[in-house]
Amino acid sequence: MGLSEDEWNHVLGIWAKVEPELPVYGQAVIVRLFQVHPETQERFTKFKHLKTIDELKSSEEVKKHGTTVLTALGRILKLKNNHEQELKPLAESHATKHKIPDKYLEFICEIIVKVIAEKRPSDFGADSQAAMRKALELFRNDMVSKYKEFGFQG
Length: 154
Description:
Blueprint: H1 5-18, H2 22-36, H3 53-58, H4 60-78, H5 84-97, H6 102-119, H7 126-149
Helix pairs in contact: 1-7, 2-4, 2-6, 5-7, 6-7
């Protein structure tokens, strides 16, 4: 279920357009995640006090975390599924320290696609969206596989 070279070109092409604005995209992704799936916000002690969308949108900590998330994802995407070394510590921290359920990975991956589609509609058509979903599915599946290695069932 790997991606073709053309699919990777779609993924990395849009990522090159997202990357210069990672804080903007990252913040939008985290805010949307908490908005659409409020249960995910409960996993973040440092964000529990933020009760409104305006508070989330104005939080530098939310922006910082979103940037961290998308920076890590970008490093993994650029490795074109040769990401074992990059993925392992991320999976370990999410499995053993943060205990992030695999369902939450599914949530955030879908939100990443939606946010990019909203912000870059002319650059992120159906083929690019399909390729990104496929790349994010590979990422998720590999994270879940690593979770199991660390004894976390997600």
